[in-house]
Amino acid sequence: MPILSILTFLPLLGALLLAFLPKENAKLAKLLALALTILTLVFGIIGLLPTFQSASSGFQFEEQHAWFPDLGVSYHLGVDGISMWLILLTALLSLVAVAFSWYVDKRPRSFMALILLLEGAMIGAFCSLDLVFFFTFFEATLIPMWLMILVWGGERRAYAANKFLIYTFAGSIFFLVGMIGLALHCKSTGHALTFDIVQIQSSVANGGLWRNALQAEAFLFWSFAAAFLVKSPIFPFHTWVPDTYGESPTAGPILSGAMVKLGSYGFLRFCLPLFPDAAKNSVSILAALAVIGVLYAAIVAAVQTDARRLLAYSSISHMGMVMLGIFSLNEVGMIGGSYQQLNHGIVSGLLFLLLGFLYQRRGTTMLRDFGGLKGQMPIFAAIFLIATLASLGLPGTNGFVGEILALFGIYTTGFAGLYGISLGYAIAAGASMVIVAVYMLYMFQQIFYGENANPTNRRLRDIKPWEIALSGSLAVLIIVGGLYSRLFTNQMEQSVRTTRDMVVLPEGHRPTWESATTGTGVAMKPAREDRG
User: Fold this and answer.
1) I need a labelling partner for 36 at 20 to 30 A (CA). Which of 80, 100, 177, 271 fits?
2) In-domain check, residue 444
């Protein structure tokens, strides 16, 4: 069964179907969108998890068909332990976004169609193994989000939407240049003209693709990195995030919990394996940007008066920690960064969902407008507390596991003085966790404690059963991910280990992906035992 094609095109076909529904039949459009997101999540769980081979470090569930063979373009899909969880995260957050948006009354059919378009595009990007198809899906995520902000956003929606589009599209231009340059370089060095990353990485590992071409490798590495730095978002390419999160409808930042992972995923899937020597020479710069972003965003978050903007800066800080783990080029750190991708999506999705519930009732997310809600909204407060504690990295929550592994990785690399990374990187990142605790607990205190002096707040009631079920499911995942993290990291470890070996081992000793198409998995050539 072509499970990856089903997961990619089921939401896209659903969006197309919604376009042909009568405008007046809003309820049918919502039911259809809800059914499709549920089906996508269920198909993803039963189609991927039971037969996924954790011991395999190659791509599984591969589908490959020639498209434009003369140009080296093929329809090639596949997942490993890194991308599989991001696909399931996308499906989960899309379901949450549709369920929350049930009461959207402004052009609901179009709104639901945009959520489905965004879901299909993100899943397609996470499982594409051909650069042309990845770029197509990568770009396809821009338009639905841009329209969501532009049509359903807040007072400054036009400014926020255009800023989002300009930033992300500018980064994509660099990726397009790099993608074409990489394919042409393959041809000019006697290798096949191809956009297939499995073939390209094999040429890198065994064919000396970058031998005597270090400048070309560095240029193309930074062309790819530019797009992913913007999407991640890493300082100083982060400024689109506060306006986007602040002005978009609640479904926007919920879905962004998966969308920004395209940036960190891009480094793991493309930048590190395809440009290994350039990556080793550049991680000190990238890690420095990540550290600055972690500290800067945490400090700015601490002085915000709007809870949505506070969480926007918090997301920038947390994504910086993700990138630090990846850039450590340490196995433990990279596993932590990969796991934290998943954790951040769940935690940030829950926090924005809860703020959405509050905004529906009060029409504001300004902290000064709240206080003393714990007594009259105890269930809401309890779930909010779980999300808050996960965000600040309390042991027992999923946020702790990912961050501590990422910190350990950057500490180990810094202590050894590898790749130009110093111990100061880990110290600075660790200090940011104190700031995170300060502003997250401050936000919780401002909303739920103190005097309930506002008459409007006194009329608020606790969240409804369906809201409890929706937010509670994410809260359960936070606890499960904290207490039983091996349920998730077990599938990631071999893929992360292989990605690391593709970078740190010398040419001739690097593992490669095999491009044979199979039903369940593709074994990789084993890495050498020596770590060079």
Assistant:
1) 80
2) yes
